[in-house]
Fold Phosphate ABC transporter ATP-binding protein, PhoT family (TC 3.A.1.7.1).
Amino acid sequence: MGSVKIRVKDTNLYYGNHHALKNINMDIYDKSVTALIGPSGCGKSTFLRCLNRMNDLIPNVRIDGEIQIAGNDINKYDVILLRKKVGMVFQKPNPFPMSIYENIAYGPRIHGTKNRSKLDNIVEKSLREAALWDEVKDRLKSNAMGLSGGQQQRLCIARTIAVEPEILLMDEPTSALDPASTMKIEDLMENLKKQYTVIIVTHNMQQAGRISDYAAFFLNGEIIEYDKTEKIFYKPMDKRTEDYITGRFG
Ligand SMILES: Nc1ncnc2c1ncn2[C@@H]1O[C@H](COP(=O)(O)OP(=O)(O)OP(=O)(O)O)[C@@H](O)[C@H]1O
């Protein structure tokens, strides 16, 4: 377990009049996987989007409180740099309609790396870290849209890693994938957490149990319980957590 990487203080979020996140306080640890769990509509994705200020793009959103990364208020960052530091992988793989190589090289180029051999190195390193290199090394020039869904999702992970983030946000990254691809991504998480702070939204309780170190149970915009995953799963303090974990609702 690492030190506190993200500190969320007294955070509320409103979509117009709808109070979607209620007084969230949470320390998220470096070099570990934190799972956000809870029934549909409880605010997990909204919370994830707070961490890289993606909610700023949605009209009529109001956020108060403070979120710090390594002690610094995220509102004080340049938003482009914040999103480089805090990468995001979405539910549906969304590769760019260009070659596998270009998908990975795109971000580093935008951030100023022009040298071809440096880019080659970044592409190889990122694809290796995302456990995709061996499958694609002979067809880096092929269009990424020709990859399988599971390969596309690992490509999206590689693309995120390529700009050297510190934090990886994953919003149900395996829910559109078959079981074999899901296992590959779960295996990958073990390695990713050695380098990054990983935060994952998942509806799959087995998955949360297998891959996360910490779990936060959300309900109606509140965090009901947040602790080591073992504790949340085997000795929850709150009856509502227990009911959710054991499948009584949600
Ligand atoms: N752009 C938006 N505008 C208005 N309300 C929104 C918006 N996005 C989400 N909401 C509302 O905020 C609440 C929380 O939604 P959110 O998507 O964060 O939940 P979730 O826990 O991620 O759900 P799911 O598990 O179904 O993805 C819901 O009531 C939802 O309808």
